[in-house]
């Protein structure tokens, strides 16, 4: 189940990061808002932390930079390392809970922030029925299955 959650994070992140417009990494929504490149760098740091948690450690280290392509690659490298760690070992006691409540939940939140920033930058990500997505444990790179059912508009909007 934990590997499926990691694959879900990869699927959703790949969708938001794929085809980002030129300059999106430096987009500034407001004076106090993080730029997308910094959010992705933080997500890569979260994956490094998650790998340490999977090994029974608790090591946090901020290593992000300003290069969009490097930070996106670092994130996917990290999520791949996490998936391998989860596939190759029994987790220490309490590690699964720490992974879920810490780095994985945080990274999913940041995927949502990136999606919102894409919309503000004029390059919105199309909504989809994620419950129907082809998400497979172990598929954690930027190459993901195409969406099964995207749609336009807001699925939560009341229909009169």
SSE layout and pairing:
Blueprint: H1 2-17, H2 36-54, H3 68-88, H4 95-120
Helix pairs in contact: 1-3, 1-4, 2-3, 2-4
Summarize the model shown.
With 160 residues, this protein is mostly helical. The protein has four helices and no strands.
Please give a handful of descriptors for the protein shown:
160 residues; mainly alpha; globular
Give structural notes.
The protein is an all-alpha fold. The protein has a single domain, classed as Four Helix Bundle (Hemerythrin (Met), subunit A) (Up-down Bundle), CATH 1.20.120. It contains four helices and no strands. It is globular and about 50 Å long.
State the shape: globular
CATH architecture verdict = Up-down Bundle
Major beta sheet, specifics? Answer: none
Tally the structural domains: 1
Radius of gyration: 16 Å
Report helical residue fraction: 40-55%
Q: What structural class results from the helix and strand content?
A: mainly alpha
CATH topology: Four Helix Bundle (Hemerythrin (Met), subunit A)
Distance between the termini: 39 Å
- Provide the succession of SSEs: HHHH
Give the uncertain stretches in residue-range form: none
Mean pLDDT: 95
Tell me the number of helical segments per DSSP (H or I, 4 or more residues long).
Answer: 4
The top-level CATH class is Mainly Alpha
Total strand segments? 0
Beta content comes to under 5%
